[in-house]
Amino acid sequence: MNAYDDLMAFQRETSALGQIAGRLGWDQETVMPRGAAPQRAEEMAAIEAVLHARRSDPRVAEWLEQADPQDDVARAQLRDIRRTYERTVKVPADLAKAIARVASTAQGTWAQARADEDVAAFLPVLKEVVALKREEGAALAQGGDVYDAMVEDYEPYTTGSQIAKIFDQMRPRLVALRAAVLDKPAPQALTCKFDELVQMQLSQKLATTFGYDLNTGRVDKAVHPFSSGSGLDVRITTRTSETDPFNCFYSTIHEVGHAAYEQGIDQAYVLTPLGQGVSMGVHESQSRIYENQLGRSRAFTGWLFEQMVEAFGDFGVADADTFYATVNGVHKGYIRTEADEVQYNLHIMLRFDLERALMAGDLQVNDLEAAWNDRFKADFGYAVDKPSNGCLQDVHWSVGLFGYFPTYSLGNVYAGCLYQALCAAVPDLDAQLTKGDASGATGWLRDNLQCYGGLYAPRETIQGASGMEPGPEPLLSYLEQKFGALYSL
């Protein structure tokens, strides 16, 4: 074996251990007994210590120096291994272990505080998380911007200032569209109750309709829907509400977008750096285009309407056109994951600004709830009514995912570019979706984006698939056209 082969063999073992850590996280969110939380924190800390040691092993530097890549795939593998190694060696092993331990503990504390509407119960552990993440960010930044170092974990080669520039372009048109839409009469809302077992059955059908392979995946329930894993074990979760089946159905389609990306990657890349989505922004482009441009389209909602009538009987919506308006209704609300396409990105911009301030030390944890509530009132025009609808609604900060939130909106921007290209490439897309056939769309995404995994950098991945430099114009035009027609603007 040569240096490259030795390095890749070592990397595959490291990746396998990383998958095990991910499975522990899946278990914690789905079926782990609540009383196991303290032990799970120690387990997560232990495996993080092993992973950190492997990722910073001096032999990795030697192999990188000696490796002679023979093709573009090998060069991309070395690029990503080198990037991970250089970042890992900057973070002390004890710090990485401490972050893993406190994040596991904080997750359980957050879930209980959210259930109890008790911000004060969450703040002490959040202070620990923020302090440790600031320390990590400073180590990674090496004198540069701490938040930029955080973003690099989720969207490589992107900075906070670049994201802020994109958001500044988007905000005025989103605010104007939101105001115009909310000035119009609201569409019909659902008023029936929907059996939650039947929701899960239809949810499973939707998952397979969008190409999710249940032979290497499964659908479970969790408080906060998510996708987990890569390669041959890619799991998703959803949630149910007796009065809101759309929460279940569109959470499922959203997470299937993530999972289909992982399942669609070239199997030759399994357990290597290229064997997973290249960034969270690109990942989110898949979940958002599945959920919104495809799943909430007039064509697909016509088919979904028929499926719901078959599953639930008459649920008070007269026809497919009314149903389409109901699915895409724009309403006042608090929850990011339940937000419509018009308002979703405004939720992300709020979180982006707050977490950037937290990492910079301009906002203290004790002041977070007030800052959130003030910003929400300014952006949305009404007050937060309870903590679970405010600063306790998301799991991300409890587990240290600072720099993650803006990738949700980057994903929307990327999805806008991809959808424009998809419509040109598959001219009978709507005719297919009307029949509940999403294979034309999902196949195009698999062949033009998903199969490459991490082979290319994030923006290169989007540009290669869409044929354009990523920017917000296609998304904004799509939103203005869709909701302009829906609300007769």
From TrEMBL:
UniProt xrefs under CDD domains: M32_Taq (cd06460)
EC nos: 3.4.17.19
Cofactor: Zn(2+)
Top class in the EC scheme: hydrolase
Pfam family, one: Peptidase_M32
Family in the record: Belongs to the peptidase M32 family.
The protein's name in its UniProt record: Metal-dependent carboxypeptidase
Organism: Ruegeria denitrificans
Native organism taxonomy: Bacteria, Pseudomonadati, Pseudomonadota, Alphaproteobacteria, Rhodobacterales
